[in-house]
Amino acid sequence: MSPFLLALLLSLISAAAYAGAAVLQERVASNTRAPAVAPLRSSGWWAAVGLNGSGAVLHVAALAYGSLSLVQPLGALTIVFALPIAAICVGRRAGRAAWTAALMCAAGLAVILSLTGSGPAHPMTGDSKVFVAAATLAGVGVLILVARRMGLSAARSLTLAVASGAVFGMASVFTKAVTEDASDPLSLAMIAVLAPAGVFLSQAAYRGAGLAAPLATLTVVNPVVAAAVGIVAMGESFRYGAAGALGAVLAALITAAGVFVLTAQTASPAPAPAATGAVPAQRQGARPCSGPGRVPGLPHARSRRDQRRPPRTAHGLLGTGRQRRRIAVRKRPAPEPAAAAGRGT
Length: 345
Prior knowledge:
signal, transmembrane helix
């Protein structure tokens, strides 16, 4: 098998492993409301860690056989794999809009990274590695501080997803450096720091934001950061000159539109279900209750004593015979004075 096909196959399996890990991480995050250390007690979280580790090993192997510009675009298929995995394993089906947005992200990102790396790349120098490592740690630290001030919101999740994607992208950059020079201590140390940091940041990003939007953001930021470092620090460039740069910009707009659609679907509140046993609306003309134990302003049913009392008829008489006779005697008219005087004469 040629190195190109081997790198392609390893990248596809790595993307599938990352997708399965993302589904498990989102499920653990949605079922866990305790502090950040609570997922450590979950078997699902450790399964996600195993899948992330397997994906990382496959990713390293793919980088050994292929270039960064080939391997990183295939990582965009993670979100495409995650939707059917979530539908089959978790029963969470994605709508047509989510599928369209996911394909937009993957297609736009594939176009962007397929236009990079046409020139011969060179390894990063020692000074470049130090600068890139310092910039990575500082940038991720700023993103974490910003996310902590946002509380539990969609913006917080997306900020953490950006940080996680940047961490994974830089881990790929230093992994590529290790494949070229396995004795580089700085690259090995950065991989040891960035790999677990990316897992924890992605776990925090899935909390309260679902699967689609954080995963799309992470999947977009990861290869974009790696490609940017490749262009700046490794001498890579866009293919086809200005036309390639324009195509990359258009593809970036398509990718951003896909992320926006996924984010809007995650942030839109679900319709509230109809409440069972709700208090019916007050009928017009009903007398509000004001007795003890009753809520003022709401009509209530009559008490049992009132229910046993016969209803009043249209003529003002009550229902029982004794009460009708009593009221009839009370309402009998008195004799007129003129008629009484005529009978006396």
